[in-house]
Amino acid sequence: MERIKISGLYFLILVYVSGAIGFVMKPNFFMPLTPYSLLLTSVVFLLNQPLKEKKFYIAFCIISLIGFMVEAVGVKTGYLFGAYYYGNILGIKLMNVPLIIAVNWALLISSGSIVAQRITDKKYYSAFICATVVTGVDFIMEQLAGKLDFWYFSGGKAGVQNYLAWFFISFCTSLLFSNALKNGNYKAAIIVLTLQILFFGTIYTLI
After folding, report:
1. pTM exceeding 0.90
2. Above 80 in pLDDT, residue 128?
């Protein structure tokens, strides 16, 4: 089982490296694969968590639900993140929100919380670090969202409101579930965060 977990992480690295190259060279072919790569990332990430830590998996599911709810409210009202809507590249939608986005919320916050709690065991500090990292990843993604048909803001770009909302929601969620997430796999968490940062950073630099 341990060999499968490690192999999954190496395979994930291969997927992101080849995906970054593919997005630059043949974006029309690789862009539709985005929801599947995010789903694969989540599966590999969860497989690497301690199987006895049921509360970890419950927390992941609840964070996904929270992510979906805030996105649904955001798309419907524009109050949370600003006025925006999703493109079609991210797959199946419910209430105009791609389901994979909810999973990605949980993926980023869980990974960020695990890494942050390795840096400090003080809950408020670790929640602040997690929210900063997650908001930073979102900032990178926002620079590419329209080009990749992820989502579109009415003003063309995300405003300060978007980043404040991301930070606040990430901070509160990380704080709320810190105990459930603290025993997560650090290696899987740091790999997931690093891959997402390097992936979107590379595309932003080269496209």
Report:
1. yes
2. yes
The pLDDT tens digits for 29-82 are 888 899 999 999 999 999 998 867 789 999 999 999 999 999 999 999 999 999
First to last CA, the chain: 39
Does the structure show a pLDDT above 90 at 113?
Answer: yes
Q: Give the angle 131-50-119 at the CA atoms, nearest 5°.
A: 35
How does DSSP assign the chain, residue by residue? -HHHHHHHHHHHHHHHHHHHHHHHH-HHHHGGGHHHHHHHHHHHHHHTS-TT-HHHHHHHHHHHHHHHHHHHHHHHHSTTT-SEEE-STT--EETTEEHHHHHHHHHHHHHHHHHHHHH---HHHHHHHHHHHHHHHHHHHHTTTTTTTSEEETTSS--HHHHHHHHHHHHHHHHHTHHHHTTS-HHHHHHHHHHHHHHHHHHHHH-
62/184 Cα distance (integer angstroms): 16
